[in-house]
Design a protein that fits this description.
This protein is α/β, with parallel strands linked by helices. It contains two helices and eight strands. Strand 6 and strand 7 form a beta hairpin. It is globular and about 40 Å long.
Length: about 120
């Protein structure tokens, strides 16, 4: 099973640049006023709707270990909210948060398997 999470935006061109250039997502489908992005197995989309952008929830990107999380952290340090840290034992993850240009919360994480 697959799926897509959609968000309303008022600045599709800004998000297109941010998610392709900064996050490394690729455009899966460009429907003019709606763009579907893909990063690994995760699909998410933004549709031009005008008005206030939809910013509820968290967009979480999952990586295969601490090193890739650290790598993207160094690329996104200007939008990061704190440094990467472990959440053990509650969640057994390593992560950091940031914000996209419209204020959506982004999470970059990996699951720890006990060997790290």
């Amino acid at each position: 099973m697959s799926g897509i999470v959609f968000f309303g935006t008022n600045n599709l061109s800004l998000l297109k640049k941010f998610y392709t250039k900064r996050i490394g997502a690729r455009i899966w489908k460009d429907q003019g006023d709606c763009i579907i992005f893909r990063k690994g197995d995760f699909c998410f989309a933004f549709c031009e709707r005008g008005g206030k952008p939809e910013t509820c929830g968290i967009i979480t990107f999952i990586f295969d270990g601490r090193e890739p999380v650290d790598k993207i952290y160094h690329r996104l340090v200007d939008i990061a909210e704190g440094e990467p840290e472990s959440r053990v034992p509650n969640y057994n993850i390593y992560q950091f948060f940031g914000k996209d240009p419209e204020g959506r919360t982004l999470e970059f994480q990996c699951f720890l398997d006990g060997s790290e």
